[in-house]
Amino acid sequence: MKIGFIGAGKVGTSFGKYLVNNGFFVEGYYSRSYISAEKASNITNSKAYRNISELTQKADVICITTNDDSIKSVCDEIAINDGFKKGSMVGHMSGALSSVILESAKKQNCSIFSLHPLQAFASIEKAVLDLENTVFSIEGDERIKEITKILDICGNKYFIVDSKDKTLYHIAACIVSNYTVTLMDFGLAIFETIGIDKEKGFRALLPLINGSLENINKYGTAAALTGPIARGDINTITKHIEEIKVRSPDMLENYCMLGKKTTELASKMKLEGREDIIKKLNEKWKEGLR
Question: I need a labelling partner for 71 at 20 to 30 A (CA). Which of 33, 178, 203, 269 fits?
Answer without folding.
Answer: 178
